[in-house]
C-alpha cells in the first residue's frame, strides 16, 4: 500500500520534471512569452518544486555552461528508486 503510494508520487514527480524541461526549452527558444503573469507564476511554481532536488546534484556535477544535466540525473535516480521499490513490492529480483 505505502509502496504503491510512493510509486505514484514518484511518477508524478517524473512528469513534473519532464514538463519543466520542455517548458524551459520553449522559454529558451522564445516560444513561450515569459511576460505573461500566468506563465511566469507557473514557471516559478515548477522551479520551487524541483529546485530542492536539483541543488545537491548541481553541487556535485561539473559546470557544463548552459547545459544543465541535473534533471536528467534526478530522472535516472527516480527510475532506479522505482525499480527497487517494485522489486521489493513484488518480491522479484532487482536485476
Question: Main traits of this protein?
Answer:
mainly alpha, 0% strand, membrane, transmembrane
Description:
Helix 1 crosses helix 2, helix 1 runs antiparallel to helix 3 (70-90) and helix 2 crosses helix 3 (70-90). The longest helix is centred in the N-terminal third of the chain and has 27 residues, at 2-28. With 95 residues, this protein is mainly alpha-helical. It starts with a helix and ends in a 5-residue tail after the last helix. It has one domain. The protein contains three helices and no strands.
Summarize the SSE layout with pairings.
Layout: H1 2-28, H2 37-60, H3 70-90
Helix pairs in contact: 1-2, 1-3, 2-3
- Number of strand elements: 0
What number of domains?
1
The biggest sheet, with number of strands, parallel, antiparallel or mixed sense and barrel status, is:
none
Give helix % range. over 70%
- Averaged pLDDT: 90
Please provide a brief summary of the model:
With 95 residues, this protein is mostly helical. The protein has three helices and no strands.
Amino acid at each position: 500500500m505505502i509502496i504503491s503510494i510512493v510509486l505514484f508520487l514518484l511518477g508524478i514527480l517524473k512528469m513534473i520534471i519532464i514538463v519543466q524541461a520542455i517548458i524551459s526549452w520553449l522559454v529558451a527558444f522564445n516560444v513561450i512569452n515569459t511576460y505573461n503573469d500566468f506563465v511566469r507564476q507557473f514557471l516559478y511554481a515548477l522551479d520551487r518544486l524541483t529546485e530542492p532536488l536539483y541543488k545537491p546534484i548541481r553541487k556535485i556535477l561539473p559546470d557544463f555552461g548552459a547545459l544543465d544535466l541535473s534533471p536528467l540525473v534526478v530522472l535516472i535516480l527516480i527510475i532506479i528508486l522505482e525499480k527497487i521499490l517494485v522489486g521489493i513490492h513484488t518480491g522479484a529480483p532487482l536485476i
